[in-house]
Amino acid sequence: MHNKQYNIDKLYEAVAEKGPVCVGLDTAVEYVPVSARRGAARDADAVFDYNRALIEACGDVAACFKVQIAYYEELGLAGLEVYAKTLKFIRECGGLVIADIKRGDIADTALRYARAHFEGDFEADFVTLSPYMGMDSIEPWLAYVETKGKGAFVLMRTSNKGMRDFEYLRLQTGGQLYDAVGDKLAVLAERCIGRYAYGAFGAVLGCTEREEAARIREQRKNLFFLIPGYGAQGGAAADAALLLRNGNGGVVNASRSILKAWMNCASSADPGLEQAASAARDAAIKMRDAIRVAVTRTSEVAATGTAQ
Amino acid sequence: MHNKQYNIDKLYEAVAEKGPVCVGLDTAVEYVPVSARRGAARDADAVFDYNRALIEACGDVAACFKVQIAYYEELGLAGLEVYAKTLKFIRECGGLVIADIKRGDIADTALRYARAHFEGDFEADFVTLSPYMGMDSIEPWLAYVETKGKGAFVLMRTSNKGMRDFEYLRLQTGGQLYDAVGDKLAVLAERCIGRYAYGAFGAVLGCTEREEAARIREQRKNLFFLIPGYGAQGGAAADAALLLRNGNGGVVNASRSILKAWMNCASSADPGLEQAASAARDAAIKMRDAIRVAVTRTSEVAATGTAQ
Of the residues B102, B148, B161, B184, which is catalytic? Predict the structure, then answer.
């Protein structure tokens, strides 16, 4: 046991306090209320204004935020300026932020990427990484666990249709590709175990497929999960609950269903930023509560041995 | 046969004219001669000054340039400004540029990434992509073949030690993971075949492993290869030659051995930009000629059936 507090420990505590919702700021400009867009000099500024309102409104409901960099790269240099401002604002508010960048490259290059996303303009608390090129593309990021408490989530089994193309391929030695990735990640996690028995490096584990969820959760005790696929991608609270343990050990991301919640409010076709952010907050609370109910149900089923 | 010219066709023609060298602009600031660094206001500006000198000096030797975005992300917003300027300068000079970004994400996100790197500030002629999440993470990029002639190289078998972790895993149905990726890429390439029978979407195929090179080249006739691993990573001209066909069908990337060539010149411990760029040009010529010799030798061996 060590005394240092990793970001993964802070995340565990945030989940214990606020629930497992990760608010995804995949903020396309078309998700920003029209009136707020009109007030902004550039599209990117409208995105930041909405992000700020969302971060303020959801701060006590979101265990963390996840910022998908593609939506900012799409807006070019102005977009990346706003990406940097968004990360900074989250961290200034005391929030935790996952940079969803899915980088993966040879060790020399990975070291540059690690500097880019764990220091400087784009400093985040966690990143997402892609394992295709192997563990030497992950290693260089690991140095930042000890120096700055950083963490990462490595793609294991995602939530998209295409995951069946490669992630599900059966291996000659048994298991599927994602199992092989999970094996390596479990070893990695042992090297950076935090206070709550989860490694600073965890895995991306989608909640769109129910069958193997309980098995994977049971098998990967030291992996904290970043769980995509909820809401717009089809995953339900019951699916997400299977990937948690006592309601912790993972964060469940939702982006569009939260960012676009204002579009479903009959009260206003074109709300102001605060009203839109309030709708987002309501959506996040609803999601949190649905997962809490599902977690309770899952543990009851487990306790009584009743099939669902 | 269609009349449209894809970037992959232009690249084929560039290789026929200039040889298969791809100059990698992984321009860390420490690769820039010290005197040139002193003259620049910011590190990022020194990087751009060196890039410009390199692009001008190597224009007639390089079939294309590859810009590794990690080295620019490392310098934050200023770095990405210079990344954008570098791509623009290459294209203004009539050169072809591969954005080495290795992105890979769900379809909605991939679409944003495609807009980011095939339009606007970061517009490139080609990108590199990671296949882990499956073909729906590649699909959205494909629309740009028809509209703008764009192309991509998808990671198949890379050049780093870690490739053995997953890329080499044997599948229950036969072959290795990289073969399964190759199968999907070959189908994809058929959907965007250019004038010279290579698809606009090709593969990243490292030249550090010799055993399977000839087999893979023979098997993947419609895949144009982006070939990393030459020089600093250990690959030799003979290895690279095995991945070409008649000296074409691929570009061989070298970054550090070209960017840092000036460090091996006895004539000057701290050369000016032009002198450093000239050393880079000499290194690129030497590399081109070595590969040409190896290509000739490979085809002679193939013709006479003589074992090497």
Answer: B102
Burial of residue B220 (number of CB atoms within 10 Å: 0-12, 13-18, 19+): buried
Select the residue from B25, B165, B230 to test the A interface by mutation, using most A Cβ atoms within 10 A: B165
Q: Mark yes or no for CB contact A134/B84 under 8 Å.
A: no
Catalytic site residue B102? yes
Do A102 and B104 count as a contact with CB atoms less than 8 A apart? yes
pLDDT digits (tens, 9 = 90+) for A119-177: 999 999 999 999 999 999 999 999 999 999 999 999 999 999 999 999 999 999 999 99
- Top CATH class of A7-296 equals alpha beta
Nearest to B107 among A121, A155, A160 (CB): A160
Q: 0.90 cut: is pTM over it?
A: yes
Kindly report the three-state secondary structure assignment for every residue of A184-242: HHHHHHHCCECCCCCECEEEEECCCCCCCHHHHHHHCCCCCEEECCEHHHCECHHHHHH
Q: Which of B86, B130, B133, B139 has the most A C-beta neighbours within 10 Å, making it the best mutation to test the interface with A?
A: B133
Multiple choice CATH, B7-297, 3.65.10.10, 3.60.150.10, 3.20.20.70, 3.40.50.300: 3.20.20.70
Inspect the interface and report whether the beta carbons of B74 and A116 lie closer than 8 Å.
Answer: yes
Q: What is the ipTM of this complex?
A: 0.96
Residue A175's nearest CA partner among B175, B169, B132, B184 is B169
